[in-house]
Amino acid sequence: MSRNRFDNIWYAIRWSHQPPEQPHGMSSEQYRWMLVDDFVDNINEYRARTFVPGGHLEADESMICWYGVGGSFVEAGIPHYAVSERKPNNGAEIQNLTDVNRIVKSAAEEEAIAATATADKDNDKDVAANEGGKGTRVLLELTRPWRDSGCLVTTDAYFASVEAAVMMKEAGLFFIGNVKQCSRRFPMEVLGNATLPK
Q1: Residue 122: predicted pLDDT
Q2: What is the per-residue pLDDT across 114-131, written as a single tens digit (0 to 9) for each?
Q3: Which of 13, 51, 161, 191 is 20–30 Å from 43 (CA)?
């Protein structure tokens, strides 16, 4: 698709609502992302209604980087970041849920990452141990439309935790993930010194 065609389609999309003035108490980052949030929500709702996944779902995160100055997009207030490294501090991170058998993205959660916003407002330290960390909460949101489907959900360490395994089971899903030893509720007494045979 050419850039001109993309621009024509983009300017015709009006799914997102952003008030003309930033609401009192809302951060400028949240205000800017209002232009994107409704768009992602509508895509996810449509896919939840129309897409029936296979038996294996994969959760992962990916970075979206914008290069250059952005021109009219920046003037319109659309979030813009210029980054160059592989795992940048600036950019947009999207958590995806993909049907492994069909390679169809079935859900997405977008999250703004700004170098200046080092304090994460969704702080895992303030969450009860049985509620799971941020990765677990995002995973639950991504898989919400397919609860009790019996699908297998595999993840990397961003999403994987003991809480994720427990909550996926409660949600009627199977779970495989690389859980780090430093995770809450990791059974150190059983697995702390375990070594895999060669």
Answers
A1: 46
A2: 322 322 444 545 554 455
A3: 161
